[in-house]
Amino acid sequence: MIRVALLGATGSIGQSTLDVIRRNNEQYEVFAVSGHQRLTQLLSICQEFNPSLACVPESAAAEFQQQLRVVGCTTEVLCGTAGLEQLAAGSQVDVVVAAIVGAAGLLPTLAAVKAGKRILLANKEALVMSGALFMEAVERHGATLLPIDSEHNAIFQCLPVDFSRRSFVEQGIEKLLLTASGGPFRGWQREALLSVTPEQAVAHPNWSMGRKISVDSATLMNKGLELIEACWLFNVQPEAIQVVVHPQSIIHSMVSYRDGSVLAQLGNPDMRTPIAHALAWPERIHAGVKPLDLMSSAALTFEQADETAFPCLNLAREAFRLGGTAPATLNAANEVAVEAFLERRIRFTQIAEVIDRVLNLSKIRPANDLQLLLSEDRLARQLAQQVIGQFH
């Protein structure tokens, strides 16, 4: 049995992972789980899978442990960031699914890296914030890093079997084609975006995702963060990545080769496919996903991203170009701005304005120390709150 630690078990990635494991329970065991807000849901997960460990916020640990005992679970409760790190690095864990949303996922994911685990990475912020440090740690500690964002997993599937982090030129690769659905506001002009509501922004046309990621998709910041993540995962510069809007979300990304070939990975828009691929790699297992029926699929169309109406994509590209702590600052400002939008404290179009102002007001430092990155993350969040306060 392969023992899986699932960081972020109650989120959309966590739920998809649990479904894949249910279908393959002769191979995989849910050994550890974590949750932050939906603790009633986490309790149900513990009742079903009876994991050895569960991690919750410190303020909820005692009550959660008592609830587990009442329902007959023998799960041991850990708490806080230290508990997450202990859970991710545990000697009995074989695979860590890093599915905590946002900067909160960085430290436990790094703990898994330093323990040399096989890591299924959905937490793109870990690479956005600390790309150089993160990838150096992966190499130094012999961890295996497999992306489960649908786009990066698709690229991984389309790369040579013996792909390494050598230059693309050596491997005959011209560029990566990173697809984007365009979100719920594809084709809208900036004036129309001024009145967008949180309810509209979280209603993604193709994917079922959490509220924060859905807003990121609507602003195209999700694609910007994915661009930065791809640069680190595949050792390329932004110039080697082309963002292609593909509204049907059937082609999940492509790789263009020197000989004129373009390899694409296709499938129905369901996160269980990349999760199952990474969980079993290099083998294949059932994911519960309906096979793609090309005969009944709509025509596949492609267009350029509108970076005038959706400036977040270019902000992410610029943050990577600036380097150092700039991507961490970008990510922190975005998290604060998205939360403010969901709470109706700022307009949809002001998300990009907050990020732009915070980047311009922040001093970019070399990103060669984890504590410095965490400090800059906190400073950027404070600055973003100040900027938001100026809108009123």
Structure description:
Strand 5, helix 5 and strand 6 form a beta-alpha-beta unit. The chain is built from 16 helices and 12 strands. The chain is of the alpha/beta class and 392 residues long. The protein has a 7-stranded parallel sheet, with helices on both faces. A 5-stranded mixed sheet has the order 11-10-8-9-12, covered by helices on one side.
**Could you say which overall geometry the principal axes of the C-alpha atoms support?**
globular
Helical stretch count? 16
Rounded to the nearest angstrom, the radius of gyration is 20 Å
Based on DSSP secondary structure assignment, what is the total number of beta strands?
12
Order of helices and strands, N to C?
EHEHEHEHEHEHEHEHHHHEEEHEHHHH
Structural class: alpha/beta
pLDDT < 50 stretches: none
The overall pLDDT average reads: 94
Span between termini: 56 Å
Q: Which band does the percent of strand residues land in? A: 15-25%
Q: Topology, pairings included?
A:
Layout: E1 2-7, H1 12-23, E2 28-34, H2 39-49, E3 53-56, H3 61-70, E4 76-79, H4 80-89, E5 95-98, H5 106-114, E6 118-121, H6 124-141, E7 144-147, H7 150-158, E8 173-180, H8 190-193, H9 198-201, H10 211-219, H11 221-234, E9 241-245, E10 251-257, E11 262-266, H12 272-280, E12 303-304, H13 312-322, H14 326-342, H15 350-361, H16 370-389
Parallel strand pairs: 1-2, 1-5, 2-3, 3-4, 5-6, 6-7, 8-9
Antiparallel strand pairs: 8-10, 9-12, 10-11
Question: What is the structure about, briefly put?
Answer:
The chain is built from 16 helices and twelve strands. With 392 residues, it is of the alpha/beta class. α14 (326-342) runs antiparallel to α15 (350-361) and α15 packs across α16.
